[in-house]
Design goal:
Layout lengths: L4 H21 L3 H20 L5 H18 L9 H26 L17 H17 L3 H12 L4 H8 L3 H20 L2
Helix pairs in contact: 1-2, 2-3, 2-4, 3-4, 5-8, 6-7, 6-8
């Protein structure tokens, strides 16, 4: 019985892929990239027979391509490339099923496991940043002499004598300005 057109088409594809693989084995990167692009639908079809979820199919397809890359030197160009590739795809697909079953025995399903609960400490960094911004704004809004006295004595930690010399203000005036600045900041930060 003579072969029909489908058999000839399959044989032609197999010969083409065999030639591309043999050329790729000799170091032709373009042939290898072309081969990988052409075999992708074939590999996907084999894997999809055993895996229904599209993400699992793609994971196994990637595994097949990685395996193909790792063992490409073992291919014999005198044999059918399509059968060799199909065997790799089937075996990697079965390995994927086994892995899933093995993990399925160890995993338990919990519908509420993905619920999240607010941790009171979760937003502390943001609250700290917000408080710092509020404090900067409050300090910037102080009258100039109060702001200067606060910066010299509290932020730069100068002594009264050093602050007095740096600002040209008396020690008594610095004490009054710092007291008034702190009182104004407390009132402003409390929202008064």
């Amino acid at each position: 019985m003579p072969p029909d057109d489908d058999d000839r088409g399959t044989q032609n594809v197999d010969r083409r892929w065999s030639r591309l693989m043999a050329t790729a084995q000799d170091g032709d990167r373009a042939a290898y990239h072309l081969l990988l692009r052409e075999i992708l639908p074939f590999v996907r079809a084999i894997v999809a027979r055993q895996h229904r979820m599209p993400d699992r199919v793609e994971d196994i397809v990637q595994d097949v391509l990685l395996t193909l890359h790792r063992v490409r030197h073992t291919y014999d160009p005198h044999r059918s490339f399509k059968h060799w590739l199909a065997m790799i795809a089937r075996r990697r697909s079965i390995d994927g099923l086994r892995r899933r079953l093995r993990l399925g025995r160890l995993e338990t399903s919990d519908d509420i496991a993905y619920e999240t609960f607010a941790d009171p400490r979760a937003n502390r960094m943001q609250e700290t940043r917000d408080a710092a911004e509020g404090l900067r704004a409050a300090v910037a809004a102080l009258p100039e002499r109060q702001r200067e006295a606060l910066e010299l004595l509290k932020l730069r930690e100068m002594s009264l004598r050093e602050a007095s010399q740096a600002s040209g203000t008396s020690i008594a005036a610095l004490k009054v300005n710092v007291h008034r600045a702190i009182k104004a900041l407390r009132a402003r930060l409390k929202g008064e």
